[in-house]
């Protein structure tokens, strides 16, 4: 039996995490025979502490409700000797750190223990952080749609992975935009964000002249990139209409859904010109 599960993908800072208008909600048909724990952890280099959301999947035959998981023991450590226990906030299933902040080059370990089992994920905040030098809007190569073009220079000699989030007039686009430097190492970016993955192609997301366009660029590590890449494949049915998509590839140990991401955050906002 498949589970229908909702993952909320948030922009990365706790202020964004707490803003309902910035939440991304995706409904997935995931291969699973029983409810499973979902862990969503984020630590950015924006001066905010780590935040974690815990919930459980439910059967697709049940109501579209995803129970929060309270009472978990969650610890965050880094390779500089830092260690803290995240505390549950007044919102059930939401946990927040206080002392460890995201710093480029550091490796972070998130450990989640609930109902006995413990799940562990490791994520390194990339260094150097790639600046988002600018943001433009351009016509798509095919058709008449307008797309965002982030302006950044990829550092030469290292593998780099990027996750972008796009907002039109303050509304988060549900698509997931990914780029890497497999064929563009050390070069200025010339790739627009296009349609991304996630299946959001509604008129509400289409850019027009006069719109406020905000793009958030995250430098993520290879495992986090792989999670979102496989999530896109899941949302697209794995590229085969007759095949059941696999679950996204979590960077947590054990039979658990979700991810832990230590990443940078850079943002730019422009008004979309007439093109």
Keywords:
275 residues, mainly beta, 2 domains, eight-stranded mixed beta sheet, five-stranded antiparallel beta sheet, 2 helices, 18 strands, 7% helix, globular, disordered N terminus
User: How many runs of DSSP E, i.e. beta strands?
Assistant: 18
Sum up the overall morphology in one term.
globular
Q: What value does the average pLDDT take?
A: 85
- The radius of gyration computed from the alpha-carbon positions, rounded to a whole number of angstroms, is 19 Å
The major pleated sheet works out as: 8 strands, mixed
Describe it.
The chain is mostly beta strands and 275 residues long. It has 2 domains: 2-127 and 221-227 and 239-265, no CATH class; 134-219 and 267-271, no CATH class. It contains 2 helices and 18 strands. It has helices at residues 14-17, 222-235, and strands at residues 2-9, 24-31, 37-44, 49-56, 58-59, 73-78, 83-88, 94-101, 107-113, 118-124, 134-139, 146-151, 161-168, 171-172, 177-180, 212-220, 257-263, 266-271. The strands form 4 sheets. The protein has an 8-stranded mixed sheet. Strand 6 and strand 7 (83-88) form a beta hairpin. The longest helix is centred in the last third of the chain and has 14 residues, at 222-235. It is globular. The protein starts with a strand and ends with a strand.
């Amino acid at each position: 039996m498949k589970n229908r599960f909702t993952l909320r993908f948030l922009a990365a800072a706790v202020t964004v995490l707490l803003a309902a208008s910035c939440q991304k909600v995706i409904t997935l048909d995931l291969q699973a025979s029983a409810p499973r724990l979902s862990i969503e952890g984020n630590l950015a280099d924006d001066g905010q502490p780590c935040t974690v959301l815990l919930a459980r999947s439910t059967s697709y035959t049940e109501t579209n409700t995803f129970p929060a998981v309270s009472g978990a023991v969650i610890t965050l450590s880094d390779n500089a000797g830092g260690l803290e226990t995240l505390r549950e906030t007044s919102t059930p299933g939401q946990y927040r750190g206080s002392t460890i902040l995201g710093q480029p080059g550091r490796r972070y370990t998130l450990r989640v223990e609930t109902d006995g089992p413990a799940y562990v994920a490791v994520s390194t905040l990339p260094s150097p952080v790639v600046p988002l030098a600018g943001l433009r809007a351009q016509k798509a190569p095919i058709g008449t749609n307008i797309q965002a073009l982030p302006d950044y220079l990829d550092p030469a000699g290292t593998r780099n992975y990027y996750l972008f989030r796009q907002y039109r007039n303050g509304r988060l686009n549900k698509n997931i935009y990914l780029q890497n430097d497999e064929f563009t190492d050390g070069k200025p970016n010339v790739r627009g964000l296009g349609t991304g993955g996630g299946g959001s192609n509604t008129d509400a997301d289409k850019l027009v002249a006069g719109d406020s366009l905000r793009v958030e660029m995250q430098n993520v590590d290879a495992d986090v990139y792989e999670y979102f890449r496989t999530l896109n494949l899941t949302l697209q049915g794995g590229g085969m209409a007759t095949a059941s998509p696999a679950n996204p590839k979590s960077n947590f140990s054990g039979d658990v859904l979700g991810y832990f991401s230590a990443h940078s955050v850079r943002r730019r906002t422009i008004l979309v010109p007439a093109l």
